[in-house]
Design a protein that fits this description.
Number of strands: 0
Largest sheet: none
Mean pLDDT: 81
Strand content: under 5%
CATH class of the largest domain: Mainly Alpha
CATH superfamily of the largest domain: RNA polymerase sigma factor, region 2, helix turn helix motif
Shape: elongated
Number of domains: 2
CATH architecture of the largest domain: Orthogonal Bundle
Helix content: 55-70%
Structural class: mainly alpha
Order of helices and strands: HHHHHHHHH
Distance between the termini: 56 Å
CATH topology of the largest domain: Rna Polymerase Sigma Factor, Chain: A
Low-confidence stretches: 1-6, 98-116
Length: about 190
């Protein structure tokens, strides 16, 4: 009958359960969704202009993922695959709603209001860095965020964006070079 659901199963094990089909597939999908939804929301939030758009993109992404079964083959980390799906759904959403723009608030997410009140210099530094990153071309900004914020390896960034490893390295180099040359951020690089 399929493996019993457990919290300790790996993503590939849960995907195997989904590929097997039946009632167990729905439970496996639920576990994967619960495991990755907060991360997916954070990723989508950086690519959309509103909370409603964020939730729409995440929902569309997981529906798209679910439609890949049975027969889905995981060839990289699940988050690498999901990132590409979220990115494509966010682009589709922006095309449909031209007023939406890519938001670069990822740096200030970890800064609480109390920290901002205690250390205004830190807030100023983060704002300068966020603004400089927002000014980067989208392809450089995306590589920089995936590599330095999300912690993806160069290979994972390439898979998520469907670009060669050399292109990832080049875009990352150009992004860091631009930040080194930017008046507000050069002292940090």
């Amino acid at each position: 009958m399929g493996q019993p659901p457990t919290e300790s199963q790996t993503d590939p094990q849960l995907i195997d359960r989904m590929n097997a089909g039946g009632a167990d597939a729905a439970a496996a999908f639920g576990e994967l969704y619960q495991r990755h939804k907060d991360w997916a929301i954070n990723v989508a939030r950086r690519m959309t202009a509103s909370e409603a758009a964020t939730l729409d993109v995440v929902q569309d992404s997981f529906v798209s993922f679910m439609k890949q079964f049975p027969g889905f083959e995981l060839t990289a980390a699940l988050r690498t695959y999901l990132y590409a799906v979220i990115r494509n759904r966010a682009r589709d959403h922006r095309r449909k709603n031209a007023k939406l723009t890519l938001v670069g608030d990822f740096i200030s997410e970890g800064l609480s209001q109390s920290e901002a009140a205690v250390d205004p210099a830190r807030t100023e530094q983060l704002n300068a860095l966020r603004n400089a990153i927002t000014e980067l071309p989208e392809n450089q900004r995306e590589v920089l965020i995936l590599r330095l914020v999300e912690g993806f390896s160069v290979i994972e960034v390439g898979r998520a964006l469907e670009i060669p490893e050399g292109t990832v390295k080049s875009r990352l180099h150009l992004a860091i070079k631009a930040l080194r040359e930017h008046e507000a951020t050069r002292k940090y690089f």
